[in-house]
Design a protein that fits this description.
It comes from Microbacterium elymi. This is Extracellular solute-binding protein. InterPro entries: Bact_solute-bd_prot1, SBP. The strands form five sheets. Strands 2-1-3-14-6 form a five-stranded mixed beta sheet, with helices on both faces. Strands 12-7-13 form a three-stranded antiparallel beta sheet. By secondary structure, it is α/β, with parallel strands linked by helices. Helices cover 41% and strands 13% of the residues. Helix 4 packs parallel to helix 12 and helix 17 runs antiparallel to helix 18. It has two domains: 163 residues, 3-Layer(aba) Sandwich (D-Maltodextrin-Binding Protein, domain 2); 203 residues, Periplasmic binding protein-like II (D-Maltodextrin-Binding Protein, domain 2), CATH 3.40.190. The chain starts with 26 loop residues before the first strand and ends with a strand. The protein contains 18 helices and 15 strands. Strand 9 and strand 10 form a beta hairpin.
Length: 428
């Protein structure tokens, strides 16, 4: 992108979607896709005299990653700072496309975020992203369905299955959904049961430990295979018009999802008609309620690319954009993000907020802030996208009845180990 790191160049902001407020300052280019990115960038530019952000929406998620990958392969064309989801960082880091932020301002902002938030953005000893938001998980449910069938929010997976059976026996809807197209969500469920699917440190000379058929993972997959076989949950792909239609129609009593879900659901038309004021949320059911485990689904960061002209200045942008109070407030009040900044999580305004989608429930205080603070993080790897694809295939086998959970786990282990070896990794 032209103009990266330029000073006083009349063409420096030629590709900016936003208007540069202080044209004499150095320019740092940024790719980001959140709906309020321009407002957030404007807030940063207004507050800083020594650097200005030139923002471009290069597409959301995969569209942006494809363009970034093209720039990595070409050795040019990448922005100084790029928005990246946590589970994608390792695949870009292994290509040396991202800069370690440990010595570029990390220590100054370290205490603003939990250890789990940082772990998700770390590869080995390096930190390759500045946290923006996350997806602490809870159990969204329909109060009308729970009331009709005399159900209270289950606190364990055993109770979840019992409630599902009770609703089914009474002629009610599916209790939930086990979607093959959501492998990241299923991976979070594995972590909740104490699984460690991967161990990876780039300092360990290309070695990776893969443990996808552990007892913990087999227990999770067998549990969901059981719910599917008993027709207690559906197997509808999520994030589809069909799924949303079912949500609105009351086809599912629960939606196990993240703190960003209300924004997504409302944007898709949920909660506006007959299903208005029927939604609530509760903590995720646990395997062992005496030792609850918080899990997370989703979240993004700003990473400094190895093509940045001035990494130190780029890091200031990465750590500073979406870090000011005005931007953070806009993010959560408009349900665009669930911020991980402790200044927000600890604020009484955020904790006491009565979420309209949940009919005034103080969902942040009751469910999502405790989950965010208790979350310990995951270990992501450069083969993460292949793993997701392989897991999707195995969930589909579970859902069509051609494999038990344990059989799917064994097949998954064999598949992913074979791929890792093909890619030159030493599998431990």
């Amino acid at each position: 992108m032209e103009g990266s790191g330029s000073t006083g160049d009349p063409n420096a902001n030629a590709n900016c979607t936003n208007k540069i407020k202080k044209p004499d300052a150095p320019i740092v280019t940024l790719w980001a896709w959140y709906p309020n990115s321009e407002a957030v960038v404007d807030n940063f530019n207004e507050a800083n005299d020594d650097v200005q952000v030139c923002w471009t929406n290069a597409g959301a998620g995969g569209d942006e990653y494809d363009k970034f990958q093209t720039a990595i392969s070409a050795g040019s064309g990448a922005p100084d700072v790029v928005m990246v989801e946590g589970d994608r960082i390792a695949s870009f880091q292994v290509q040396k496309a991202l800069v370690d932020l440990k010595d570029l301002g990390y220590e100054d902002v370290k205490d603003n975020f939990s250890a789990g938030a940082w772990k998700d953005l770390s590869v080995g000893d390096g930190v390759y992203g500045a946290p923006i938001d996350g997806g602490p998980m809870g159990m969204i449910y329909r109060t009308d369905v729970f009331d009709k069938y005399g159900i209270t929010p289950p606190t364990t997976w055993q109770e979840y299955e019992a409630a599902a059976q009770k609703v089914k026996d009474a002629g009610g809807p599916f209790f939930g959904d086990f979607a093959a197209n959501q492998p990241a969500y299923v991976t979070a469920l594995m972590y909740q049961n104490g699984a460690e699917p991967f161990t990876y440190d780039p300092a360990d000379e290309g070695a990776i430990a893969i443990d996808l058929n552990s007892d913990e993972i087999k227990q999770v997959l067998d549990y969901w295979a059981g719910l599917v076989s008993k027709k207690l949950v559906s197997t509808q792909d999520q994030f589809t018009p069909e799924y949303i239609s079912g949500v609105i129609a009351g086809d599912y009593a629960t939606y196990l999802s993240a703190a960003w879900a209300p924004g997504y659901l409302q944007g898709a038309g949920v909660g506006e008609g007959a299903d208005a004021k029927v939604w609530a949320t509760a903590p995720m059911p646990q395997w062992d309620p005496a030792s609850p485990v918080a899990i997370n689904w989703g979240g993004s960061a700003f990473s400094v690319t190895s093509q940045a002209k001035d990494p130190k200045l780029a890091a200031k942008v990465a750590f500073g954009v979406y870090a000011d109070q005005k931007s953070l407030d806009d993010g959560w009040k408009n349900q665009i993000i669930f911020p991980l900044n402790q200044g927000v999580l600890k604020s009484s305004e955020f904790q006491e907020y009565k979420v309209p989608f949940f009919n005034g429930q103080q969902a942040n205080k009751e469910v999502y802030v405790p989950a965010a603070n208790a979350y310990k993080g995951m270990t992501y790897t450069p083969i993460g996208q292949y793993y997701y694809s392989a897991l999707t295939k195995q969930i589909a086998r579970i859902n069509d009845g051609s494999a038990t959970g344990a059989e799917a786990a064994d097949a998954l282990q064999k598949d992913v180990v074979g791929y890792a070896k093909e890619q030159g990794f030493t599998v431990k």
